[in-house]
Amino acid sequence: MSAKTLYDKLWDDHLVKQRDDGSCLIYIDRQLLHEVTSPQAFDGLKLAKRQPWRLDANIATPDHNVPTDKAERSQGIAGIKDETSRIQVQTLDDNCKEFGVVEFDIFDERQGIVHVVGPEQGLTLPGMTVVCGDSHTATHGAFACLAHGIGTSEVEHVLATQCLVQKKSKNMLVKVDGVLGEGVTAKDVVLAIIGKIGTAGGTGYAIEFGGQVFRDMSMEGRMTVCNMAIEAGARVGMVAVDEKTIAYFKDKPFAPKAEQWDAAVAYWQGLTSDADAQFDAVVELDGNAIEPQVSWGTSPEMVLPISAKLPTLDSANDAVQRSSWQRAYQYMGLTPEQAITDIKLDRVFIGSCTNSRIEDLRSAAAVIKGRKVANTVKQAMVVAGSGLVKKQAEAEGLDKIFTEAGFEWREPGCSMCLAMNADKLLSGEHCASTSNRNFEGRQGNGGRTHLVSPAMAAAAAIAGHFVDVRGF
Amino acid sequence: MQAFTVLTGLVAPLDRANVDTDQIIPKQFLKSIKRIGFGVNLFDEWRYLDEGYPNQDCSKRPINTEFVLNQARYQGAQVLLARQNFGCGSSREHAPWALDEYGFRAVIAPSFADIFFNNCFKNGLLPVVLSEEQVDILFKECEANEGYQLTVDLAKQQVIRPNGEAFSFEVDAFRRHCLLNGLDDIGLTLQAAEDIRAFEAKAKVARPWVFNALR
Ligand code: SF4
């Protein structure tokens, strides 16, 4: 038998059928549902009078639209001021009740961003195929899952058939060896990768992240990296199973128990690429050389190390890039050759499925402890990824560190990552954000997003502009 | 799903790379629980000068006359010409819903983001990949000639220019078949219900923990 990559193994273990025309039916183990991309799928089922194929494969929680303000939140769905948001969250509740899907609703302490909740509960387990109507489903690849985002028609397709029609992607290995410097985090690694290969560099590929840097990384860090695989164009990002992966699931509520646990561990241990497996593309970065990163433009590939100056238009690779940069400069209100440390911030957002886990909050709190948010910063907020992350942070006293420094301590949800709820930027404002997308208008019409790690966001909040967190 | 066979239609050029789905349909419109109503908000932030909100009467909003789709010569366009990595970012299917409702039936670009590409096929919208050079030629011709039309023939897998020359494109057999016949994917997959059950029976032995009840 020829050597296989991790992706090949996951694919083969879920292949139901290859049809004559080459298209494949892939079995889906777990589907995560949230309020934005599921209503039309449930509607489709109702119209066609179909039932979910396997109810227990599905789990739902509202996240995108839920208010993060404590007063608003305490009233549950009724407290959501925006009517369209309220209807959407209510519709998820109604659909889950009607069909019998398990839901962590707005009052459940397990509620949170789907990609934080799945692993936290052991609903995502190594070797599973995991889908969700959300492109950041790649996050779950950190546990050697074959996980990717799908559209609403596919959500309906999975509900009805437990399968997806797929074509196999090519294999890409992104290898980062070496040791990260003090103050350099998983977020900086993934931003540096995107800076190198570009937002379309991974299109058509399933990426496996390999090398010492990922072996040394915590599970939280691996989730941060896989989360942004989609920003490099790849639907799927993965890290092989190791001892850390297995330890992570010990005693998680929905993880297997007793003999089932032992059988699962034996299976999980095989979820690595064979030593002589062939990849269609290999990209290498030197982990020792990665600096803290800051995105300056309107695409995640417009990213630079903190020590850099913004690029001149003449240094663009081609006419298309030049015109994208030109437009980005205009939109961002920045000029070529400006130092990144000169960019002043109006708001700071620590949260999102990229960086809202306990480790992220600890790393930001360590920078903030005993300091104050600069008085030029209008708002700094921390939004935990789930009710349980929030509870844990409070048990560790992190909320006090944040609030004493002048940060707002919010209820869990997507919040200012995409500004579907009330949390958003005003036109022209610059925001240091630990989220994953700096597209035009992403955090509010005219808003200017800079993607950074939690530690870099924390340092920027204190300084009022970007600073190198190393030695801050 | 509506079938796609042959289309001859007016072309509109959107000369930007990496157009993301946040741009195609901004998030505030994703709060709808319906599949329709997104057309008027397609490219909302580029198309209008003010900030849009759901369920608004868009006919009274200030128009950005600079934006290409607002120019008189491109009214009624059915083919959108775009640059590389079109449809990147969020998985929202609202993007193809909005393009479709606006009136586009095909999008031609040198490359598309995977999820968007896939979502198009589920909605009778044909994404066509041509080479950078070919797309460049189409951009030039389109901008130089008012009323520029292209024919997109899915059965022949060709984009035919007004001078009769054709550019061939690839499309995988299954998607082509579904689109040509307007077939419902779910119905087709359910024809393999026996295979799915057989797979599950084996998987329950190999990986029983995957099938644990959630309550
Ligand atoms: S936190 Fe942001 S990126 Fe993540 S699921 Fe929510 S909206 Fe999407």
TrEMBL record, chain A:
Residues 8-464 form the Aconitase/3-isopropylmalate dehydratase large subunit alpha/beta/alpha domain. It catalyses: (2R,3S)-3-isopropylmalate = (2S)-2-isopropylmalate. One of its GO terms (biological process) is L-leucine biosynthetic process. GO terms for molecular function: 3-isopropylmalate dehydratase activity; 4 iron, 4 sulfur cluster binding; metal ion binding. Belongs to the aconitase/IPM isomerase family. LeuC type 1 subfamily. Catalyzes the isomerization between 2-isopropylmalate and 3-isopropylmalate, via the formation of 2-isopropylmaleate. This is 3-isopropylmalate dehydratase large subunit. It comes from Agitococcus lubricus. The lineage of its organism: Bacteria, Pseudomonadati, Pseudomonadota, Gammaproteobacteria, Moraxellales. The gene is leuC.
Automatic annotation (TrEMBL), chain B:
Residues 1-132 form the Aconitase A/isopropylmalate dehydratase small subunit swivel domain. It holds the Pfam family Aconitase_C. Belongs to the LeuD family. LeuD type 1 subfamily. This is 3-isopropylmalate dehydratase small subunit. Heterodimer of LeuC and LeuD. Pathway: Amino-acid biosynthesis; L-leucine biosynthesis; L-leucine from 3-methyl-2-oxobutanoate: step 2/4. CDD domains: IPMI_Swivel (cd01577). Keywords: Amino-acid biosynthesis, Branched-chain amino acid biosynthesis, Leucine biosynthesis, Lyase. It catalyses: (2R,3S)-3-isopropylmalate = (2S)-2-isopropylmalate. The keyword Cytoplasm does not apply. SUPFAM superfamilies: LeuD/IlvD-like. Catalyzes the isomerization between 2-isopropylmalate and 3-isopropylmalate, via the formation of 2-isopropylmaleate. The lineage of its organism: Bacteria, Pseudomonadati, Pseudomonadota, Gammaproteobacteria, Moraxellales. One of its GO terms (biological process) is L-leucine biosynthetic process. One of its GO terms (molecular function) is 3-isopropylmalate dehydratase activity. InterPro entries: 3-IsopropMal_deHydase_ssu (IPR004431), Aconitase/3IPM_dehydase_swvl (IPR015928), AconitaseA/IPMdHydase_ssu_swvl (IPR000573), IPMI_Swivel (IPR033940), LeuD (IPR050075). Its EC number is 4.2.1.33. Transmembrane segments: none annotated. It is an enzyme of class 4 (lyase). One of its GO terms (cellular component) is 3-isopropylmalate dehydratase complex.
